[in-house]
Design a protein that fits this description.
Rossmann fold, globular, alpha/beta, 13 strands, nine-stranded mixed β-sheet, four-stranded mixed β-sheet
C-alpha cells in the first residue's frame, strides 16, 4: 500500500485517483505512523513552501518522511512535494526544507509569465525505472513559480525549458521528485504513477 501524506497542502484525492486508475492501492493519511508503516510514500502539495514545512513539522510528518526514506521505501514528491525534499527555498526569504537532496528552490527568472502553467516537454537525461515506457520529450502538465536547483547534477532525471533549463524530475536510490503533476498529465503521466507503484510492489 502507498501512503499519500495529508498535511493540509494539495490535491490529494486527484493523486489517489491517478493511482487507482492504474490499479495501484493508495490511501490518504495524516497519521505519521501509517506513513512509516506503508510500503511506499507520496508527498504531494501545492502552495507556499514555508507553510508546508510548518505543517509537516507540527504534525510530526517531517520525521515520518525521514524514517520512510531511511528505511529504503520508494518515496515520491510531487510539485511542492518535490521542492520540500531540498535543503531550502528562497520563497519569501529562506526556509529550511527536509534536506534529502542537496540544493535550493529558486524562483523562475524575471520576465516570464509566472506561474509556469500548462504543458511542457521533459527531456530525459538518463534511464530510470520511474521512466520506463516514457518517450523522450514527452509533455506533462506544470503549475509552479519555483524550481529545484540541485547541487548534485547526477540526481537529475529530466530537464524542462522555461526561461531556464530546470530539473523537472530528480531521483536517487529510492527517492524521487517530480515538478509537474503526473495525475493531471493524461495517460503519459499516469504511466509514471504506475511505474512508481510497480517499484513499491517489488521493494516491499
Amino acid at each position: 500500500m502507498i501512503a499519500i501524506i495529508d498535511y493540509g497542502m494539495g490535491n490529494l484525492r486527484s493523486v489517489q485517483k491517478g493511482f487507482e486508475k492504474m490499479g495501484v492501492e493508495a490511501v490518504v493519511t495524516g497519521k505519521p505512523q501509517q506513513v512509516v508503516q506503508a510500503a511506499g510514500v507520496v508527498l504531494p502539495g501545492v502552495g507556499a513552501f514555508a507553510d508546508a514545512m510548518t505543517n509537516l513539522r507540527s504534525s510530526g510528518m517531517d520525521e515520518a518522511v525521514h524514517r520512510a526514506v531511511e528505511a529504503g521505501k520508494p518515496f515520491l514528491g510531487i510539485c511542492l512535494g518535490q521542492q520540500l525534499l531540498f535543503d531550502a527555498s528562497e520563497e519569501w526569504g529562506l526556509t529550511r526544507g527536509l534536506g534529502i537532496f542537496r540544493g535550493r528552490v529558486r524562483r523562475l527568472p524575471d520576465g516570464l509569465k509566472v506561474p509556469h502553467m500548462g504543458w511542457n516537454q521533459a527531456e530525459i537525461q538518463r534511464a530510470d525505472p520511474l521512466l520506463e515506457g516514457i518517450p523522450q520529450a514527452s509533455s506533462f502538465y506544470f503549475v509552479h513559480s519555483y524550481y529545484v536547483d540541485p547541487e548534485e547534477q547526477a540526481v537529475v532525471l529530466t530537464r524542462t525549458e522555461y526561461g531556464v533549463r530546470f530539473a523537472s524530475i530528480v531521483g536517487r536510490e529510492n527517492v524521487y521528485g517530480i515538478q509537474f503533476h503526473p495525475e493531471k498529465s493524461s495517460g503519459i503521466g499516469l504511466r509514471i504513477l504506475e511505474n512508481f507503484g510497480r517499484m513499491v510492489k517489488k521493494c516491499c
